[in-house]
Amino acid sequence: MRVLIIKLTSMGDLMHALPALTDAVREFPGIIFDWVVDEAFAEVPQWHPAIRNIITTSHRRWKKSLWKTLRDGELRHFYRQLNTSDYDVIVDMQNNLKSALVSLLRRGPVAGLDKASCRERPAHLAYKVPIHVNPQQHAVERMRQIMAQALNYPSPTTPADYAADFTSYALPTLDFRLADNYLLFVHNASWLSKMWPVKHWQRLVLLAVEAGYQVLIPSGNQAEYLRAEQIAMVSGHAYALPRLSLNHMAALLQNATAAICSDTGLAHLAAVASTPALTLYGSTDPNLIGTFGQHQSHLVSDKACVPCYKRGCPRPEAEAGLPVCMQEMAPESVWHGLQSLLPAK
């Protein structure tokens, strides 16, 4: 059996779909998948052993320079790639307007969420094979149920298995010696309302170094790197990392003792790698989109307004949109929350 998955973004959402592929492999040994994904995250599908081909979109870049995209024939090339192979099943596992457009470009019936289940209407109109799932459950379970219905097998009840193995991945070349025991502090996030204050991260660095750990602080762009440097400046045992490939980050997480994370894609990568991790939540609900898997723990703000799902904090006492709920999470409480995940010394 050959299946085409349409799921373009974002990093964590893509990882949520991996266990669904593992379920399908158990039901249909020998099944293979092709995956349509945004070029920025093309490494993620390749972590699953059942993936055969990756078809990349560049919709963010295409949107910025549509005329150049049309002139250079990128859309024509993408359309040909999308429709080159025959598939037994085509399933949109993202079910938003962007992925629905890709589904419409693909010849043949596409399975996707029905009107009651779809979060971005009218995306459901793109799907000839409607699927109904309860949207008020964790994304990993939603993905598993979508795949089960698309391929017509019972919804799985076994623990989710990402089936990713990073043990052979090469570590990046760094300008410092990597310690045997190091922690990753993932400070960055796409929403301002998910950000924990720099001063709290700095205090956490001091607590970690005092406990005998080296601290690595990753970044995804120049602004995040400058923030990482600001966090690291409090100790000679803390290091800001430049932007690295997802495969290099996977290797670092695979070998880390543990991680403390904002609600961002690398937190989900820690779950895929089964690396002990504590993730901080304020504006979003971990019951729906939180890290999912072995050795994962959540520290959730106890503010009455949580979760608000606002990109910036709307409370009147918030300064420049900085989240009140995250500022009230004390570094000592976060460090204490990590202790149960750390190996005994």
Topology at a glance:
Layout: E1 2-6, H1 11-27, E2 32-38, E3 51-57, H2 59-64, H3 66-72, H4 74-84, E4 89-92, H5 97-105, E5 111-113, E6 129-131, H6 139-151, E7 182-186, H7 198-210, E8 214-217, H8 222-232, E9 238-240, H9 246-255, E10 258-261, H10 265-272, E11 277-281, H11 286-289, E12 296-300, H12 324-327, H13 331-339
Parallel strand pairs: 1-2, 1-4, 2-3, 5-6, 7-8, 7-10, 8-9, 10-11, 11-12
Helix pairs in contact: 1-6, 1-10, 7-8, 7-13
Description:
- One of its GO terms (molecular function) is ADP-heptose-lipopolysaccharide heptosyltransferase activity.
- Its EC number is 2.4.99.23.
- Pathway: Bacterial outer membrane biogenesis; LPS core biosynthesis.
- With 345 residues, the protein is α/β, with parallel strands linked by helices.
- It folds into two domains: 2-151, Rossmann fold; 182-339, Glycogen Phosphorylase B (Rossmann fold).
- 35% of the residues lie in helices and 16% in strands.
- The chain contains 13 helices and twelve strands.
- It has helices at 11-27, 59-64, 66-72, 74-84, 97-105, 139-151, 198-210, 222-232, 246-255, 265-272, 286-289, 324-327, 331-339; strands at residues 2-6, 32-38, 51-57, 89-92, 111-113, 129-131, 182-186, 214-217, 238-240, 258-261, 277-281, 296-300.
- A six-stranded parallel beta sheet has the order 9-8-7-10-11-12, sandwiched between helices. A four-stranded parallel beta sheet has the order 3-2-1-4, with helices on both faces. The protein has a two-stranded parallel ribbon with strand order 5-6.
- Helix 10 (265-272) links the parallel strand 10 (258-261) and strand 11.
- It is globular and about 60 Å long.
- 43% of the residues are buried.
- The model has no long low-confidence stretch (mean pLDDT 95).
